[in-house]
């Protein structure tokens, strides 16, 4: 909490040496709360609907710190993480303008639109103005409004005063209305005329196609044509229609094409380029975000050539963030060769790449992935997070094999007894693994044991959440046991216990979970819990309806066969 002059942090921000290997969240949180001394404390918002001014800047300060401490590539990848966090909420929960007066309680506004999309807006302002003018505008805004309350218009005015630039167009599109552009970009080369053709389509749904309002965006986007041994040629084009084609006269065919050079704008992009240009982009584009976009497009093409290109990048790519994305894309290609190349990621010097490799192997669910994950789960890793991911993963892979399941259950029981450590990351991984053994009563009994008061808080919360995950394969009697335990937990007042209980109930497929959720929503004093509970009710109703429908379908098929 960013109290004026003094920030209060939780004990989870205290890391040991092993946790510090791949945990940057404490640093980011310190940077975030420190920024609030200016944005939020010295300058105070006049109304809750303008809270993005402070929370967006505090979140963007995490990016600024990452750039200062770890370099431009790490900052660009962190910024992509902020964008993805918002995009996930936009796609899976709801879409809203950042500045809105439509809400029941102010706390509901403190979401990924406010924090992460707010950070993206500050990044776009900086990209539009350049670094020097951006910080001049920030300086003007803070100094002109010190010890005063502000609204979004005050930020716009400070930008214009400091730089002479009016950025109303950016705020109108990204702050005062919901959504973002979804681009599809196709490229072709005309060798006879030495013309590069780029067709850009805004694919966000037209009005009426979904329940969401999706308008066209009007942006000036830099397009780069790259060469292996020469400076890129950059053109700026105005993209404002549903579909537009642009033609660029060039001296020779480019090696690769970069859409939105420097990743200036918040958006999604689907690249429809030939494989040769994508491979060159993955290998030579100086922007890590552009390189990982190429990796994604290569994986979608599939085949052995895609596997070879991604495997080469996994071995040669200098930035860990791109290697991490390459691992994730390799796992989507359903070829034996992809699995063989993926194993190289387990030896990567960067723990975050090893963790991504473990999670990718978990999704493959093969005998080879089982053996690889079992080895790490049993022997450990220098990273808590890699080890925990392997423990969850080996249980996930073993869930459909009786012999493996028995072996893994013994391993998880041993881990719970012997591997207590920082913030219970590893033992929480074991609880997560138990939740994947969905038909095992022994696994359920272990999980229930760790929901008791007196269990270390992070481990207890993991066990509560795991009750929802394991419920889908349990007997009716065991589902009743789960529901009774969650009902007991739902009356506890601690915020994180309530959230974990809601998450667990939201994963269940029985109507009996609805009454517990509704009771929790009616009695909790926290608006965030109330909203989560109401969303979980909808999830349960949908799951219960589907399960009922599947049962009726199965019964109908059975009757038809019998007849």
Helix and strand topology:
Blueprint: H1 25-35, E1 43-45, H2 52-70, H3 72-92, H4 113-129, H5 131-144, E2 148-150, H6 152-163, H7 168-174, E3 182-190, E4 195-202, E5 219-227, E6 230-239, E7 243-249, E8 256-259, E9 268-272, H8 275-284, H9 288-301, H10 303-316, H11 320-330, H12 336-342, H13 351-364, H14 367-379, H15 384-398, H16 402-418, H17 425-434, H18 441-449, H19 457-470, H20 476-490, H21 495-506, H22 512-523, H23 527-562
Helix pairs in contact: 1-2, 2-3, 2-4, 3-4, 4-5, 5-6, 8-9, 9-10, 9-11, 10-11, 10-12, 11-13, 13-14, 13-15, 14-15, 15-16, 15-17, 16-17, 17-19, 19-21, 20-21, 20-22, 21-22, 21-23, 22-23
Description:
The protein has 4 domains: 11-174, Neutral Protease, domain 2 (Orthogonal Bundle), CATH 1.10.390.10; 182-273, Aminopeptidase N, middle-beta domain (Immunoglobulin-like, Sandwich); 365-474; 478-563, Leucine-rich Repeat Variant (Alpha Horseshoe), CATH 1.25.10. 58% of the residues lie in helices and 10% in strands. The protein has 23 helices and 9 strands. A 4-stranded mixed beta sheet has the order 7-4-3-9. Strands 6-5-8 form a 3-stranded antiparallel beta sheet. Helix 14 packs across helix 15. The model is unreliable at 557-563 (pLDDT under 50).
